[in-house]
TrEMBL record:
The chain crosses the membrane at residues 26-50, 62-84, 127-145, 177-202, 223-244, 256-280, 287-306. This is Nucleoside recognition domain-containing protein. The keyword DNA repair does not apply. It comes from the Bacteria. Keywords: Membrane, Transmembrane, Transmembrane helix. The lineage of its organism: Bacteria, Pseudomonadati, Pseudomonadota, Gammaproteobacteria, Enterobacterales. It comes from Gallaecimonas xiamenensis 3-C-1.
Length: 321
């Protein structure tokens, strides 16, 4: 018994470090590039480009810098920027919901796009799905809320973030190191949980429950576990586990592609959704409409001719030692 437990622990530890090293090779360079671009003024330039698009979604031009920030960095940073540039601007709950939806669909693109690219999803598809999808859903929600008069009351911010963040380079480095260190135990816990689900037979139950939804999107039931990880905890963790599953041959390349495309539109449904609720957004847009939109888009993508998806890059083999 002890021998078997030791062998399981060693296997899990080995898998954890493989996934962790793969993610580090992607995330560290991407984080450095993001910081350099931000210091060079890329965020302000992108905000200027986005201003006309904000009007199409019923949002003031000033919120362009918020979406520009979240696309290059993360939701936490964008929320700080939001309270700096629009904290006192009168916005309706509908407008806050549209903004929250934009933030959830298209954020942290340099890092999450790099992770998806490593697993076989090209940049052009990631950007088209996430930025294009955010625009389509944002305009759709704005049209719906305007036509029905739903959520037109003044928005109520539940918890304002501090608006005087320490922006020094040293603070940024410490924050990134802290995040990168925490990823390691998180991955280990995820892999332990997945192993327990398999041993207890819960994995099969999850597959059965998710199969109708996965089948609608053209995804095999073997991707159920990875989908759950990504939807609940985030694209980075989901893709990290997915890379390991792909190298083992348990998932087809088509399942990998469709799963990652789905996670690109709907991931971290707990933490990120709760964060965006704090700025006064409504669940009708940031959760239910986002989930329905993701299912619809991936269902349509899955029905494209196989030749359309065949040219995509393949999942790389694990590095040789």
């Amino acid at each position: 018994m002890l021998h078997r437990l030791g062998r399981e622990a060693l296997t899990l530890a080995t898998r954890t470090f493989k996934v962790y090293l793969t993610l580090l090779k992607i995330m560290v360079p991407a984080l450095v590039v993001i910081k350099a671009l931000d210091m060079a003024g890329a965020t302000a330039w992108l905000a200027w480009l986005l201003s006309p698009l904000m009007q199409l979604m019923g949002l003031p031009d000033s919120l362009g810098v918020v979406w520009a920030t979240v696309m290059l960095t993360n939701i936490y940073t964008a929320m700080v920027v939001f309270f700096q540039v629009a904290g006192n601007e009168p916005l309706t709950t509908a407008q806050l919901t549209v903004l929250g939806t934009l933030m959830l669909l298209a954020h942290f693109l340099p890092v999450e796009g790099a992770v998806a690219k490593k697993a076989g999803v090209p940049w052009r598809l990631t950007l088209a799905l996430r930025i294009g999808g955010a625009l389509v859903l944002g305009m759709g929600l704005n049209a719906f809320y305007s036509a029905t008069g739903f959520l037109q009351e003044p928005g109520k911010v539940l918890w304002p973030f501090r608006t005087d963040p320490d922006s020094s380079l040293a603070t940024w480095v410490l924050e990134q190191l802290s995040t990168l260190v925490l990823i390691l135990p998180t991955i280990f816990c995820l892999l332990v949980l997945l192993r327990l689900l398999a041993l207890l037979g819960i994995e099969k139950l999850i597959h059965w429950l998710l199969y109708p939804l996965l089948r609608l999107m053209g995804i095999g039931r073997e991707a159920a576990n990875v989908t759950i990880v990504g939807v609940t905890l985030g694209l980075t963790y989901g893709a990290g586990v997915l890379l390991e599953e792909a190298r083992s041959g348990r998932l087809s390349k088509r399942d990998i592609l469709l799963t990652l495309c789905f996670l690109g539109l709907c991931h971290s449904a707990i933490e990120d959704t709760l964060l965006v609720l704090l700025v006064g957004a409504d669940l009708s847009g940031i959760l239910w409409a986002r989930l329905a939109f993701a299912v619809l888009v991936i269902s349509l993508l899955a029905r494209l001719p196989l030749g359309v998806l065949k040219p995509l890059p393949t999942v790389p083999d694990s590095p040789q030692s």
